[in-house]
Design brief:
The complex is a heterodimer of chains A (405) and B (326). Chain A has nine helices and 18 strands. Chain A is of the alpha+beta class and 405 residues long. Helix content of chain B is 36%, strand content 20%. In chain B, helix 10 links the parallel strand 13 and strand 14. The mean pLDDT of chain B is 97. The chains are: A alpha+beta (405), B alpha/beta (326).
Chain lengths: 405, 326
């Protein structure tokens, strides 16, 4: 009768090993106690002896392959003997396939390391586990299908379930890529981002989007840049957008709002936060009363805030009191995106890049510089129509800035 | 605390009962002048005389039948059957009569008979004088079955058997007669139906009877040196069986090996395995293993006899297989 050679546990904590070299080939005679293969574990490379005498009928585990403890790696028996594939008694309603030595396809299948689930699927879904292991798994909510059994004949025993439970939490996370995992502890700012963004996720949000023809805004910016004095900050599209958004907010006060539990607070001034990327995260300094400031004033203020944000020199009060937020990724070539709400503010505007696009105007296809605006809104504070009217105003102001006066 | 051999402990229980109680007497083949083929009743003829230490003809059926008659008539007879192999000749009396009278008479008749017998391999007595047949008797409702493994248990359990109002088959093991052990100063009965934990352990329970209790203890010592903690439980009485103690032990250790000298197949170990799987199913981390003699008549040739009957190394091998270190 043939016997399976399984990968032995050669020391405490050994879960797997790699066969460095088989010292016998298929068909060779093997004596019990004779060195059969060299095994590499985490701790050492050592020679492993055969635990049965006979002929090495089949090598199931190839050199260099990492194998779990208890996995069948070879079959020893009488020459020409038929042998059972691993876990034959579990074949269930699987097709009858007496595994003759001459059937290479099936043996390769048996040799390949398979996930636990795939192994069980072959076995008609039955999981071999001790009653105690089953009870522990039941009580702790562990799926036995995901547990690797190291008991006799691959049976899952209590120890396996306990080991699986210990490793279950990391296993739920995405598998780490090969190579060393770099662990970055959360800094204060990342913790704050994580906390605030998770909070934001609780808000019932919706998004609406429009594209604005930026022809006039481009002209406006060119004019502003042309009039710039020595040492003044260069006005950007962001500054124009801040100014025009402030004007739109003053006309649509419902959007210039904060959600406060059982109240909605409509604010008298447009204090606009601008999302600024900094080396270890993101900050949103606030420009106050933007509706009262010129674009050039906003540009000066914005340049100062961004510079100090990157140096980590913003004061706490400069990060507070916002009523609306603009996040602009246009400079990165982003065409459109959805920003995450900045609670308790009612809305945040996500701004994409200005791109020349073919647009139909009076029956002709014409190239126009378009910019996409995506507004994320807190549905607890505002509704779709309100949000749409506001966004339409922003679009109109961008297309004809004079209307904002 | 006095030290007695197992043989002396059995004799002490009988003699003390006979000193205290006129209703108690012993009879059997060659038990008077010869003192029994195993020397258990030596000296009793001198103390109690031929009326109370009675030799009988060589007819097991007649001996047991006479014992049943005396018991029904109000005596507390102790009948010795020289070898348990010869109990097969007395089965009708024991199974059909002794076991049934109390039930069939609606409790009007009691049969306070103690039937002592001995057996076991290990000294080359041959196929007809070496068997362990306890499984034959635990299958019969209406009798009690005791199998003591130490001098203290032998004395205390025999005392309780003599004073039990039901027929009790009391097994002694031939190779234990010279085993010495402490016994209480005064004879105290040991409750029939209570197991004894000989050794506490965490990883596995060995349920062993008779000689195998000592083999199991030896295996447990060896296992301990290999980091396996073995609990050894001796049921002491096979019927009634202390299921609570056995199941309780397995619930603690999660694994069980049963060891007896009788053949494994259809043996008493099968009953233990059934009790354990039912009572501790959700606590079992491995199949229950059984250790016993191979399914063959006991050979006369000493080497072959040793090969057939179980030893400490067989228990140890089963222990290791069960904990997954085999």
């Amino acid at each position: 009768m043939s016997s399976q050679v399984t990968l032995p546990r050669l020391g405490q904590g050994m879960e797997s090993g790699t066969i460095v070299r088989w010292l016998k080939a298929e068909g060779d005679a093997v004596e019990k106690g004779e060195v059969l293969y060299e095994l590499d574990t985490e701790k050492a490379t050592q020679e492993v002896e055969a635990d049965a005498s006979g002929t090495l009928l089949k090598i199931l585990a190839q050199e260099g392959e990492e194998i779990d403890v208890g996995t069948a790696i070879a079959v020893i028996g009488e020459p020409g003997e038929e042998y059972s594939p691993p876990e034959p008694e579990d074949s269930g309603d699987q097709e009858e396939q007496p595994a003759a030595v001459e059937e290479p396809a099936q043996q390769e299948e048996a040799a390949a390391p398979q996930p636990e689930a795939a192994k069980r699927a072959e076995n008609g879904g039955r999981v071999k586990a001790s009653p105690l292991a089953r009870r522990i798994a039941r009580e702790r909510g562990i799926d036995l299908a995901s547990v690797h059994g190291t008991g006799p004949e691959g049976r899952i025993v209590a120890e396996d379930v306990e080991r699986a439970e210990k490793t279950a939490a990391p296993a739920a996370a995405p598998a780490p890529p090969a190579g060393e995992v770099e662990v970055i502890p959360l800094t204060g700012i990342r913790k704050a981002i994580a906390r605030r963004m998770t909070e934001a996720w609780e808000a019932p949000v919706f998004q609406i989007a429009m594209s604005a023809d930026m022809t006039a805004a481009i002209r406006l910016r060119e004019a502003l840049v042309a009039r710039m004095r020595e040492g003044e900050a260069k006005p950007t599209y962001s500054d124009i957008l801040t100014k025009l958004s402030a004007a739109a907010l003053m006309r649509h006060r419902a959007v210039n709002a904060l959600f406060a539990g059982d109240e909605i607070h409509l604010l008298p001034t447009a204090n606009i936060g601008i999302a600024v990327a900094v080396p270890n995260g993101l900050v949103v300094p606030v420009q106050r009363s933007c509706e009262t400031k010129t674009i050039q004033e906003l540009a000066e203020e914005r340049a100062d805030l961004v510079a100090r944000a990157r140096d980590g020199k913003l004061r706490q009060e400069e990060l507070e009191g916002g009523t609306f937020t603009i996040s602009n990724l246009g400079m990165y070539g982003v065409e459109r995106f959805v920003a995450v709400l900045n609670p308790p503010q009612a809305a945040i505007l996500a701004v994409g890049a200005i791109e020349e696009r073919p647009v139909v105007r009076a029956g002709d296809v014409v190239p126009l510089p378009l910019m996409e605006l995506t507004l994320t809104c807190d549905h607890r504070s505002i509704d779709g129509a309100t949000a749409s009217e506001f966004l339409r105003t922003v679009k109109q102001f961008l297309e004809e800035p004079g209307l904002a006066l | 605390m006095p030290e007695l051999t197992y043989r002396e402990a059995v004799r002490d229980a009988m003699s003390e009962a006979m000193r205290r109680d006129e209703d108690v007497f012993v009879m059997g083949e060659d038990i008077a002048e010869m003192g029994g083929s195993m020397g258990v009743t030596q000296g009793m003829l001198d103390e109690f005389g031929p009326d109370r230490v009675r030799n009988t003809p060589i007819s097991e059926m007649a001996i047991v039948g006479a014992g049943i008659g005396a018991a029904v008539a109000g005596m507390r007879p102790i009948v010795e059957i020289m070898y348990q192999d010869f109990m097969t000749l007395a089965m009708e009396q024991l199974v059909q009569q002794a076991a049934k009278h109390r039930y069939m008479s609606g409790g009007q008749i009691k049969v306070p008979l103690t039937l002592r017998t001995q057996g076991g391999a290990g000294w080359s007595p041959g196929a007809q004088h070496a068997q362990q047949l306890e499984a034959w008797f635990v299958h019969v409702p209406g009798i009690k079955v005791v199998f003591a493994s130490t001098p203290a248990d032998a004395r205390g359990l025999l005392w309780s058997s003599i004073y039990d109002d039901n027929p009790v088959v009391f097994f002694e093991h031939r190779t234990l007669y010279n085993l010495k052990g402490d016994v209480p100063d005064e004879i105290e009965g040991i409750e029939i139906g209570k197991a004894r934990v000989h050794r506490e352990g965490e990883d596995l329970t060995v349920v062993a009877t008779g000689r195998m209790v000592h083999e199991a203890l030896e295996a447990a010592e060896e296992a301990e040196s290999e980091g396996i903690s073995v609990e050894v439980v001796d049921p002491r009485t096979l019927l009634p069986l202390d299921e609570e103690a056995i199941v309780g032990s397995v619930k603690k250790t999660n694994r069980c090996v049963v060891a007896h000298e009788a053949v494994v197949r259809m043996g008493f170990g099968a009953e233990i395995a059934a009790v354990v799987q039912h009572g501790a199913f959700d606590w079992l981390d491995a199949p229950v293993e059984r250790v016993g003699a191979t399914f063959t008549p006991i050979p006369f040739a000493p080497v072959m006899e040793q090969y057939v009957i179980p030893h400490a190394e067989d228990v140890l091998a089963a222990v290791k297989r069960t904990v997954g270190k085999g």
